[in-house]
Amino acid sequence: MSVLVVGSIALDTVKTPVEEHADQLGGSASYAAVGASFFAPVKLVGVVGDDFPKSEFDFWKSRNIDPSGVQQVAGKTFRWSGEYAWDLNTRETKSVALNVFENFWPELPENLRETQFVLLANIAPSLQSHVLDQMRRPRFVVADTMDLWIETTRKDLDALLPRVDLLILNESEARMMTGDTSLIRAGRSLRRMGPKYVAVKKGEHGALLFGPDDFFSCGAYPLEDIHDPTGAGDTFAGGLAGYLAGKGDGEVDFALLRRAVIFGSVLASFNVEAFSLERLRSLTSEEIDERYEMFRLMSQFEVLP
Ligand code: AMP
Hints:
It contains eleven helices and 13 strands. The chain is an alpha/beta fold and 305 residues long.
């Protein structure tokens, strides 16, 4: 089954203590769509300006990402720039220019409205709801968000949550939304706000998954060299949603979700090995399976007979 991905498509300028790259492909939907495409066909919804490279459309098509929901309009593509501190964990947003995003209020093409799995990647919650309004009974809806929306459009976010099956957010956002320092209590409170499942990302410390009766915790892949953490969360969400859509039988249960969290973590770990989407462009399914196997071995703590 396919997954519809809506979110930002950006040209990012990213600076780390050792490197800087300008105007490279970024945006929550770009990372999420490519992450998901390793497991399922993707339908991408977003907006770009007339400065957006045509070669990216060819790249999407080569990865089984249908860009018919991407509008190209006159004006400049959304631009974001950020700078990382020496630990590559703390990031400061240097500038944001919404550009063509400012007036983006998509009408989905008919053929996209039947898509069974939906990933609402990070964008304004009102836009996420607007896309969801146009879908016909999707089987499973995943939503990501960020601190900006929790601080500025909390009502819109609260209205979206009961319509979401899985909410993904990072640990500081989970604490911010619930006012609770305990991530375990925060995960449970977030579920009471509407989503059936909640995934809390803890960066280099892994992820937590909360369900109605179950709890799952996993570590992150131990990487020595991180070049650019941008988009790790979006790639995690994309890999996870793609796995649910492409590898299950359409029904989502906790066992499938546990594996999806690991595949999401595997994809995110590859993404941070290079700037922009460079590592995802060359990534193979064999490399993904190899790292998944490493996760399996690393999380075993009893010696098997
Ligand atoms: P992450 O590292 O997972 O937080 O995602 C970084 C990506 O989010 C970058 O590629 C940005 O282009 C994109 N981004 C940054 N700010 C926003 C925003 N306000 N809305 C949507 N996407 C954004």
